[in-house]
Amino acid sequence: MKSFLSSRRGFTLIELLLVIGIIAILASIVIIAINPTKQLGKARNAQRRSDINTILNAVYQYAIDNNGVLPGNIPSGASTAAAKPICMFDTNIASCTTATGAGNLNGVNLRSLSGTYLVGIPKDPSVPSTLTASGTRYMIYKDASSRITVFPATTDDSETITASR
User: Fold this and answer.
1) Which residues contact 49 (CB under 8 A, 6 or more apart)?
2) pTM of the predicted structure, to 2 decimals
3) 92, 24 contact by CB (below 8 A)
4) pLDDT per residue over 38-47, tens digit each?
5) How many CB atoms lie within 10 A of CB 104?
6) Could you state, in order of their start, the residue ranges of all structural domains in the chain?
7) pLDDT digits over 52-69, tens only?
8) With b meaning 16 or more CB within 10 Å and e meaning fewer, what string describes 21-48?
9) To 10 degrees, what angle do helices 36-65 and 13-34 make?
10) Of 75, 109, 113, the residue nearest 91 (C-alpha)
């Protein structure tokens, strides 16, 4: 007659460790395949594309409503070297547009777009949410043929993102 303990069935410690090890290996392969860092970078770049198109549409809508006059002090130039940063909505106008002095951005004030054309000036997704007195990390300029170009100062994976109209 068999004893009660010898007739009980279950998994041994080695079997449990083997299953846990296989699950860990499969989980690490899935995480590597998904690559969350790359996916987050793609999401930030998608937000940048959306933001620059939103800014560009607002600038042109403003120009249409104001007989072709562009908002702010959008710089003119032949290339991205002429571009200036777009200031955040709550940045002091003097520190936004002034080139000299600590904390000055030498940027473009598009405050006139807020309210009617934009809810607020979009800022790059890599800008901390607590940062308010600075640039949006979006750049803007007008080329020789009066085309406005907006682009982010930085992107993930060195992707080129730009919108011109």
Assistant:
1) 161, 163
2) 0.78
3) no
4) 999 999 999 9
5) 14
6) 37-164
7) 999 999 999 999 999 999
8) eeeeeeeeeeeeeeeeeeeebeebbeeb
9) 30
10) 109
Instruction: Extract the tokens encoding 62.
Output: 């403003």
In order, the DSSP letters of the chain are ---HHHH-----HHHHHHHHHHHHHHHHHHHHHH-HHHHHHHHHHHHHHHHHHHHHHHHHHHHHHTTTPPSTT--B-SSGGG-EEEEPTTS-HHHHH--SSTT----B--GGGBTTTBSS----TTS-TT--SSEEEEEEEE-TT--EEEEES--GGG----EE-
Which two tokens mark 125? Answer: 């997704």
What residues contact 50, with CB distance under 8 A and at least 6 apart? 122
Please report, for residues 26, 62, 157, the alpha-carbon distance to residue 84 in angstroms, rounded to integers and kept in the order given: 48, 19, 23
User: What tokens were used for 50?
Assistant: 């959306």
